[in-house]
From TrEMBL:
The keyword Protein biosynthesis does not apply. This is Class I mannose-6-phosphate isomerase. CDD domains: cupin_PMI_type_I_N_bac (cd07010). Keywords: Isomerase, Metal-binding, Zinc. It comes from the Bacteria.
Length: 335
């Protein structure tokens, strides 16, 4: 049996937007500086174009991806392995937006299979720890020529003006389908669950520490990259279906996300049991203990992050705490 593994912070350095203070506050310790706004948890994914950066390491120094590849059944379970092999189907992050993120989008699987020969697109969802403003999808149909002009001229005011603006609060969640333009506002702090790829297409880069003209299109050129954009006008009620207000348990994320990943917030006051299966745990408040079916109990505290293998079995969680439990899709439901 492999026991749950406590993971230290894993923060790619020198990102093009600011943040990191809220990750340090949650964890108690993390990378210094103001351009470490992401903590990649239980990551088997590298930054786009990088051979190593982004991969999580276990306390014994091994890369998690190597451990999973060596014994996928123990980590992921036989049903998962029968469908997807050693692919975890999951990447979890802490993201601290020290400034508003640029308007951007992530491509869907058919696009990346055709143009990038990648296994996954990048759907994502945000569980909100600290709230604020987000922009999500266009309010009206946008012509491709219009989008091209906005991007070439960096007309950020026009882009944001055409998008839905939402206020989100702690305990809310937002599902972002592939292709949907979006931006996370300054001060928003999230647990992000996503498909395990680092694939972003920038619509905006003015004022950010990145050369968007050179780096904003995944090496494809904007003529091709922007084919991935969802240019449809989304009605307000359609956007509302992506947002869950104060969701708990199975209702933490919008149902539309289930084919990509699962995540649920659990508020424990006393005890509860987590079903067996590969998962990534993020303790967002409080303290307690975690006890696998066949191993001694270990402490849990605010800021802890853990990778839980299938062979750990069901887990008893006791105490007064809140955690987010992130999992890959069910083999019967996954994309």
């Amino acid at each position: 049996m492999i026991a749950p593994v406590y993971l230290g912070s894993n923060q790619p350095p020198d990102r093009f937007y600011r943040g990191g203070e809220k990750i340090r506050a949650l964890r108690g310790t993390a990378a210094p500086g103001d351009r470490v706004p992401e903590d990649w948890i239980a990551s088997t994914t590298t930054l786009f174009g990088e051979p190593e950066t982004g991969l999580s390491r276990l306390p014994d120094g091994r890369r998690l991806v190597d451990a999973v590849t060596a014994d996928p059944g123990a980590w992921l379970g036989p049903e998962h392995v029968a469908v997807w092999g050693a692919d975890t189907k999951l990447l979890v992050k802490l993201l601290d937006a020290g400034q508003r993120l640029p308007v951007h989008l992530h491509p869907a699987r058919p696009f990346v299979q055709e143009y990038l020969e990648r296994r996954h697109g990048k759907a994502e969802a945000w569980y909100i720890l600290d709230g604020g403003e987000v922009h999500l999808g266009f309010k009206r149909d946008v012509d491709r020529a219009e989008l091209d002009a906005w991007v070439a001229g960096q007309d950020v005011e026009a882009m944001l003006g055409a998008m839905h603006r939402l206020e989100v609060a702690p305990g809310d969640s937002v599902f972002v389908p592939p292709g949907l333009p979006h931006a996370i506002g300054a001060g928003v702090f999230i647990v992000e669950v996503q498909e395990p790829e680092d694939l972003s297409i920038l619509l905006e880069w003015k004022g950010f520490a990145i050369d968007g003209e050179a780096e904003g299109h995944l090496g494809l050129g904007f003529g091709t990259a922007l084919v991935a954009a969802d240019l449809r006008g989304w009605p307000a009620d359609g956007i509302r279906q992506l947002v869950i207000r104060q969701g708990l348990g199975a209702g933490t994320l919008a149902d539309l996300s289930r084919k990509y990943f699962r995540a649920e917030r659990l508020d424990v006051s006393g005890s509860t049991t987590l079903d067996a299966g590969f998962s990534v745990l993020v303790v967002v408040d409080g303290a307690g203990t975690l006890e696998p079916a066949n191993a001694p109990a270990s402490p849990l505290a605010k800021g802890d992050t853990l990778a839980v293998p299938f062979t750990a079995g069901s887990l008893a969680v006791t105490g007064q705490l809140s955690l987010v439990c992130c999992r890959p899709p069910l083999p019967s439901e996954g994309a």
